[in-house]
Amino acid sequence: MAVDVRPLVDMEQGILSPRVYCDEDIFQLELERLFGRCWLFLAHDTMIPKAGDYMTTYMGEDPVIIARQRDGSVAAFLNQCRHRGMRLCRVDGGNNKVFSCTYHGWGYDLAGNLINVPHEEQFPDMDRSEWGAIKVPRLENYHGFIFGSWDPTIPSFTDYLGDMAWYMDVFVNRFDGGLEAIGGVHKWVIDCNWKFAAEQFTSDMSHAEVSHGSAFIACMPDDYDAARGTMPEYGVQFSSEAGHGCGFFLEGPVLEFTPGVRIADYWERETLEEARRRLGDARAEGFRAAHFNVFPTFSFLPGIQTTRVWHPRGPNQIEVWAWVMVPKNAPDEVKEAWRIGTMRTFSPAGHFEQDDGENWVEIQKTLRGSMARRTKLNVQMGMGGERLDADGFPGKTNICYAEMAARGFYQRWSDVLSMESWAEIDAARARRGDAVMRRLVAVNGRNGQAGR
Amino acid sequence: MATTLSEPEAPTVERVAPELQHEVEQFLYYEAEVLDERRFDEWLELLADDLHYWMPTRRNRARKDMAREFAGAREAAFFDEDKDSMVRRVRRIDSGMAWAEDPPSRTRHMVSNVRVLPTEIPEEFEVRCAYLLYRSRLERDVEIFVGARRDLLRRVDDGVGWQIARRTIILDQATLLAKNLSVFF
Known about the structure:
The structure holds two protein chains of two kinds. The two termini of chain A are 43 Å apart. Helix content of chain A is 31%, strand content 22%. Chain A has helices at residues 24-34, 157-161, 164-172, 194-203, 208-211, 213-219, 261-270, 272-279, 281-285, 332-343, 353-366, 370-374, 404-418, 422-444; strands at residues 9-10, 15-16, 40-44, 53-59, 62-68, 74-78, 93-95, 99-100, 107-108, 114-116, 138-142, 145-149, 179-181, 186-190, 235-239, 245-249, 288-294, 298-300, 306-312, 318-327, 377-378, 387-388, 396-399. The radius of gyration of chain B is 17 Å and the shape is globular. Chains A and B meet through β14, α6, β20, α10 and α11 of A and β2 and α3 of B.
C-alpha cells in the first residue's frame, strides 16, 4: 500500500492530521479505493426522464455517461472511447441514439456497447462485444435517486446506508409522488479539499451561528423580533458506522427564514398529514434545518432542498454540482418559491453558501505550510455524549452541536482507504458498531434521551 | 415577468441621437464607479422598485441544442432578484459578519459595446453592453467575470435621472470558475 492513512486519523481520541486534506498520494488512493469503490450519486430519474435522455457526470475524476434506455432502465459507463481514450461525449447532456467518438468515429449505443468501428475490416479478429465502454457494474435506484459503484462486490445500497436509510427517507420519501429536479444545475469550483464540504454536511451544525451570521440577518423577515433570533438548542446528530451523518433541530422556526414563509406553510402545515402518513410523527415534525451527507460526497438539506455532489478535482479543488429537488405534486407557485428561496441561500450567490467557500479555501491555503500540515486538529466536540437508539432515533445519536458524525466520517474514510475488500471494511464497521453498543449501554443505558 | 433569452428579434443597427448615447454611457460609468467604491446604498437607489435582476445558468450543449443553452425563467439561476432581495443582499454585506466580503473585494466594473435601443415606451431604453468585472480579494485571489448585460433603463425625474428596471446578465462560463458570487454585476 502506497500510503498508510491510519496513523493520521485517531477518532478514539478525536485527533486528525490535516495531511488528509492536501497530500497528493492520499488523493490518488482516494480516487482508486474510495471513489473507485463507494456508492456515488449519478442522477435523479427526473433529470433523464425519456428514452435516449442522457447526462454526463463524474465518479471521482472519472467522467461517466448515464443514459435512459429504450426499455426505461438506466445504464452508466465510462465516458472514454476504447480506441484512443478520447472523451466520448463533450456536452452536459441531451438526447441521443449513438455516442460517436469525434476522433476516429467509434460509435457506442445508449448502454455503452460498441456498435460501429470505421474500417473495421482492418482490425484483425475485432470482437466488438469486448470493446464496449467500461460499464458501471452496479447501479441502484433509491426513491428516484440513482447511485453507481465501480465495485461489483459492494453491498446493496440499503445495506450501505444501514440506519441512515431511516433518516434519509425524511428527504427522499416525504411526499406522495416523490421529488423532481428543477431544471438546470449550479456548477462552480472551490479551491478546497472535498472532505471539508462533505464533513460539514455530515456533522456540522455548530458552524452556522458563526459562519452564517450575516445570512440570518439577510433572511430575517422585516417584522421579526431580533431577540428571538438565536439558534435553537434542542437537536439531534446521527452518526453511522458507515460514515454517513446528519443533524437537525427539533424545535424553533427555521423554514420561515429560508427558503421562506411560503415553504414553511407548505412543509409544516399543508403537507404535514401526508408526511405523517408516510413517515410517522417524529420524522414528519422534527428535522428542522437538517444537514445530511451520504458517504462520501452526496449532500442535501431537507426543507431547503438543495442537493449536491462534491466532485474532487485533485486534493486542492472541488467542483460543486447543486440541484433543487421539489415535490413533484407541489403547486407551481410552491416549486417557484423553492427555486428562488434556495438560490438566494444555497447557491454561489446565496447568503449562506458564499461564506462556506471563504472558510474552506482559507484552510486549504494555510495547509501549504509545513508546520500547518503537521499541526494536529481537534475533532472532539460531543465526545461522551453518544446515545444509542434514544428517543426513537435509531443508531448512534448525540446533541446536534457535536462532531460525532465527523469522527464516524473520518473513521470510515480511513477504513475504506486502508482495507482491501468490502468484506473487510464491513467487518470493521460491524466490530465498531458492537463496541459502541456495549459501551453506550454500559454508560448511558439504552433508549436514553436524545438531543439534550 | 421573467425575461427569456430566446425571444426572436429583428436585427437592428438603429441610430439614436448622440446625446442620448452619451447620456446612457455616462450613467453606466457612474453606476460602475458607485459599485467599485462600494457605495451600495447609493447603488440601491439606482434600482427601480419593479426591478428584475437575472443571471441564468448556462449549459455546455451541442450546437443543435443551443435553444437549451440558457436556463429558462423557471430553472436554475445565479441571480433572480427583485428590489427587496437586493436590499437584503446589501444588508448582508453591512452586517459585519459577511466573511465572503469582509475584507471586501476590490472590484473594477468595465463596460463597453454599448448599444441603446428604443422601446415602445418613450422613457425606457434597452441598453446592451459587454462587461468585464475584475475582482481581487484577500492577499492574492483574482477572478475575472466576462459577459454581456441587457438592461432596461428608465428615465426618471429624481436622483441621477435614470433607473435600472431590468438587468439580464449573461456570464460567459458554463461552470462558474469562482468560489462564490458575492459581488454585483
